[in-house]
C-alpha cells in the first residue's frame, strides 16, 4: 500500500541522523564509567560470550566498571534465565520481552526480542512480544504467564491471591509462580538501569534470527 | 549474555503454537466479511500493489467487502502519505509508527515499521520507532514532530497553542502542522480499526529491509 | 440551591472575556491556511449544507484549503455517518459523542452533541453522551456499543475476541462491528485534527434542539 | 455536513429508551432513603429555593433523609459558593464545573453548567467548562485558577509550593488560594456522593440560560 | 539484612534537614491566614479537644481564620465520623485512610492512620491502610466497603449499579451505602484542602498507639 | 476532633480479623516452598542477622528454598545498600521507600520505612517517604535524587538526558547516577517479588525507631 522510493530520505535528513540512531557499539551508556580490570572469573565469562555469541553483550560491559556489581548481576541473570526451571528458556525470554514492552525499554527489547526469535524459531513471535503480546495466539499457559507478569509490572498493587490462582489453574506450580515473579521482577530492574543510563544494544541483535 | 540452544523450544510448546502466532496470510481479520467484486479503479490499484510491492497489503483486503469504504480509505491514505507535503515520506511513516507504538497496534507497527526501515535505509531506526522513539537520537525537527504527534495521541485534550509554537520554532509551517496532525489522526483511526478487527499483517513485512 | 444574580459577572471579567470564549464564526482554526477555490463537487456540497442546515460546518471550511483533502474527508464522513448500516444514524452519532467525550474534543462535542439531541428528540441524551454515557439508562444494545467504542478509544491494546463476542451477544453482526469500529476510529481521527488545530464549532450548534 | 432527518430514531429504539434517559424529577437517587420531616430552618430554605429558583434542587432532596446531614451540607455550600470571597460567584461555579468535568459527574455538570451559563450570560462558556476548559480563551487569572483546581482534582499529590506561587503571580491572595482549594475540594466531595448514589439533576437545568 | 550504623547520617545532611522534615507544630499551612477570635461554640470545642486528646488537631487551627468555615467543617465532620451509623467508627476511619492513601495526602494519613491504630488496637492495620489496603486480610464486609470507597476515589465515573449491588451483597443497607459514599467523599475534599495548603499534622500523631 | 473510645471495635469485627491483619511471623509468603538446608555461607549470614538485628528478615527466609537464589539476592543487596557509594546508606533507604511507595509494596514499606526512621533518627521522615516524599522538606540534592528514582519507577520511558543533567546539577557524579538507578531498579524488582508472593514483613519492624 505504499510505493516507497529508495530516494525518499533527503540528503539533509540523512546527514543529520548519520551515525546517530544506529547503535554503534562504542558508546554503551550515557555515563562515563571507565571499565575496571576484569576479574579472572569475569574474564573467563566474557571469553565464553565471545566464543558462543560472537560478542559480549553491552549490558555486561556497562556493569564492568565494578567487578562486584558485574558478578552479582551475572550470578542472578544466569540463575534466573538459564538454570533449570519449570519455565522453558523461551518462556522466560517471553516474559522478559513482554515486561520490557510495557516499560518501553529499548535495550531489553532489542536484545531479548532477538532471543525470542532465536529460541522459538518463529520471528513474528518476537515482534508480537515487542508490539503487543495480547495479539499473539498463545497457548493458555503462556497467556496466563504473560498476563501475570505484565499486571505485576503495570499495577503490582492489584496482584492478589486470585492472580496466583489463575496461574495454578493454568498448570503452574508454586515454584513456577516464584520463577515468573522473579523473572518479571528482574526485568523491571534491568529495564530501569538501562533507561536511566541510555544503554544501547549491540547492533548485531537487530538482524539476528529474522 | 545467553546461550540459547536451538532445542530450547519443547515439542509440546511448538505444536501448541504452530500456525498460530505466525501471520498466515489467509485469515486477515476476526470478522467474516466476504469480499465484494473489485471496482475497476480498485482492481487497477490492487494490480499496481502486486506489481510494485509484490503483494496487496492486508488492510486493503480487509476493506474490500465494500467498494465505497475501500475507495474512501485509499483516497485518504494516498493523499496523506504519498502526496506532496512539507513532510518527507519517511517523516510521515515515522509519525505512523510512533503513534501506533503508543496504541500498541500490531498490524500498523509491522507494516509501517517496515516502511521506516526501507525509506530510511536504517533498520534500527524502525526498531526505535516501534520500541520508544525517545531513545532515538533524532534531529530536533523530527523530535518535535514526534513529540507533538504522540502527545496528540496520548492526551489530546492538553494540546494547546504552545504545542503549535514548538512546532513552528522547529521550522514547521502551518501547513506542515496540519499534515502532522492529519497523519497522527489517521493512524489513530486505522490503529483502532485494526485492533477492533484483529487485523493481521502480511507476513512478508517481518523480513523486509532488515 | 443558588441565587445567581444577573450582575455577578464583574465588568472587568466580562471585558477580558468578550468575544473570546464565544465561538465567533470567523476564526475557524489556529492555522493560517487560505481556502482554495472550491471544486464544482465541493461547491455543490457546500450549497447543499447551506440549504439543509443553514450553514457550512466549520470542519469543512477548515479542510477547504485543499480540495483533495476536503473531498477525501467528505467521502469518508458521508459513507460512515449517512450510508445504510445496521447502526441507526443516532447510534452512529452517539458513538461520535462518547468517543469525543473521552478525548475531550470541544469541536466534536458541540457539533455532534447537537446531532444527538436532534436525532433523538431527547436533549438530555445529548448531555449524557457529552458528560458520562455510563450515567444514561440505555438499552443493552446501545450500552454494549458504546462500551466497545470507548474501550477502543481509551485502551485499544486491550481489545480482544471477548470484546467482539460481547457485541455479538448484544445482537450486532460482523458488519455492524466493523461499522462501530470505523465510526469510533473516525472520531479518534477527527478529534485529533480538531484539537491539534484548535478548531472552533459554528456558534449555532449551542442552541440547536435544546 | 449532516442531514439529520427527524425520523432517524427508529420506533424500536425510542420505545426502549422512553422515560429512561430523560431526568424525570421523581427518582432522585438509586438509594431508598425516605425523606425525614423538614426542620423549620430547612423548610424555610426549601421554600426560598421554590421562590427564587422555581424548584428545590435534587441534591437537597437527596440529603433530606436526615436533617443534620442536610443542614451541614447547606451551611458549607452556602458559605463556599455564596458568601463574600475574592472569587466571584461565576469563578466559583467555573471551578465547580471544571472539577466535575474531570470527574465526569453528570449531576454536577448539569446543575453547575447551567449556573455558569446564567452567571456569565455566555452559554458557550458553560459548554467549554463541561467539555474542556483548556479550549476556552480565558483571562490569565481564570486559567491559573482552573489549572490549580484541576491539578488538585487529578493529581493532588503533585501540588506543591510552585503551584501556589503560580496563583499568587496571577493575583490571588492566600485567602483566595484557600477558597479555590475549598471549592475544588467541595466538588470532589459532592461529585462522589452524586456518582455513588446515581443522583439525577432536575430536568429544568438542561434548558436554562441556553 | 542490614546493619544500619547510627552514624550513617552525615552531619551535612542532618543539618540541612534539621527542623525541616519534622512536623514542628507551629507552621500549620503554607498560607498566611491569621486566626479569627474563636466563637464561644468553637472555643468550647477546642477546649474539649485539649481535654480529650491533649491537643487541638491542626486541621481545626487551619480553618480557624473564619468561624463560619470552621463551624461548617466541624459540623460535617462530627456528623460523618462520630454520629450513629451502620458503619463502626473504625470502619469510617479505615475509609478515611484508604481514600487518603490513594490521594497520597500526608496530613490525613498521619492523623487518621493514628485513629485506625487506636480504634482497632491493631497497629499493623493502620500501616496496611496507609500502604495498601489490599494487602490486609480483611473480612469480606470491610473489603467490599474499601473497594467501593477507593473506586469512587480513583475512577468515580465508572461507579454504577453493580457496585452498589456488591455492597448490598456484603450486607450494607442503602443508608450504609450513603455513609460509605459520604465519608469517602468527605476525605476526597479534605485531602485536597490539606494538599493545596501543605497542611502539617500535629507531631504527636506519629507515635500514637504504635 | 475525635473521641475514639477504646471499645469502638465491635467484638464481631475483632474476631473476624484476629490473627489476620497482624503479621504473624510464621507464614511468610503465599507460596509453599519448603526451605532448603542453608549453605555454610548463608547459615553464617543468618546467624549474623540474628546477632545484629535480633531476627532474620522474612525476605531472606522467602528466598531460602534455593541457596543459589538466596546467595545471588544477598550479594546484590549487600553491594547496593551497604557497600561504599557516593550515596549515604540513608539516601539509599530513602530511594527504597519512595520507590516502594509508588508501587504500594507492603513488605518493603514496612521493612525499609523502619530503616529510614533508624538511620535518620527522624521518625516522621520515614512516614513522609511512605506517604508522599514530595511533602518532605528535603535538601535539593535528596529531592532531585528521589524525583529521578520515582520517575524511573513510574514512567521510565520518559527518562532522558535532561533527567541525568538535573542530577549532575544537584551534585551527583556519573557513578552516583548509576547507584541511584541501580537502587531504584533493585526495589522495582523486589517490590514485585514481594507483591507477587504476598510476602509479609517481620512484625518487629512496625514498632522500630518510632
**Secondary-structure element series of chain A:** HHHHHHHHHH
- Binned strand content of chain A: under 5%
Structural class designation of chain A: mainly alpha
* Unreliable spans of chain A: 1-12
End-to-end distance of chain A? 23 Å
Q: Biggest β-sheet of chain A: count, sense, barrel? A: none
Mean pLDDT of chain A: 92
Shape of chain A: globular
The total of beta strands of chain A comes to 0
Q: Determine the number of helices of chain A (DSSP H or I, runs of at least 4 residues).
A: 10
Give the assembly state of these chains.
homohexamer
Largest interchain contact: C-D, 64 and 65 residues
- Radius of gyration of chain A equals 19 Å
Q: Provide the helix percentage of chain A.
A: 55-70%
Descriptive notes:
The structure is a homohexamer of 210-residue chains. Chain A has 210 residues and is mostly helical. Chain A is built from ten helices and no strands. Chain A is globular and about 50 Å long. The longest helix of chain A has 24 residues, at 174-197. In chain A, helix 6 packs antiparallel against helix 7 and helix 8 packs antiparallel against helix 9. The interface between C and D is large, with 64 and 65 residues.
Amino acid at each position: 500500500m505504499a510505493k516507497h522510493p529508495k530516494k525518499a530520505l533527503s540528503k539533509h535528513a540523512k546527514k543529520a541522523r548519520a551515525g546517530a540512531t544506529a547503535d554503534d557499539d562504542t558508546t554503551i551508556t550515557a555515563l562515563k564509567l571507565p571499565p575496571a580490570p576484569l576479574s579472572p572469573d569475569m574474564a573467563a565469562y566474557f571469553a565464553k560470550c565471545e566464543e558462543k555469541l560472537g560478542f559480549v553483550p553491552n549490558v555486561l560491559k556497562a556493569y564492568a566498571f565494578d567487578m562486584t556489581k558485574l558478578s552479582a548481576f551475572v550470578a542472578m541473570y544466569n540463575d534466573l534465565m538459564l538454570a533449570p526451571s519449570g519455565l522453558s528458556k523461551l518462556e522466560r525470554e517471553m516474559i522478559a520481552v513482554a515486561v520490557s514492552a510495557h516499560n518501553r525499554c529499548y535495550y531489553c527489547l532489542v536484545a531479548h526480542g532477538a532471543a525470542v526469535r532465536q529460541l522459538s524459531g518463529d520471528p513474528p513471535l518476537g515482534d508480537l512480544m515487542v508490539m503487543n503480546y495480547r495479539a499473539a495466539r498463545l497457548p493458555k499457559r503462556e497467556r496466563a504467564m504473560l498476563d501475570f507478569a505484565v499486571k505485576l509490572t503495570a499495577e503490582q498493587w492489584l496482584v492478589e491471591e486470585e492472580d496466583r490462582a489463575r496461574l495454578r489453574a493454568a498448570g503452574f506450580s508454586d515454584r513456577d509462580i516464584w520463577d515468573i515473579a522473579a523473572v518479571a521482577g528482574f526485568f523491571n530492574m534491568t529495564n530501569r538501569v538501562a533507561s536511566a543510563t541510555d544503554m544501547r544494544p549491540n547492533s548485531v541483535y537487530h538482524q539476528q534470527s529474522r
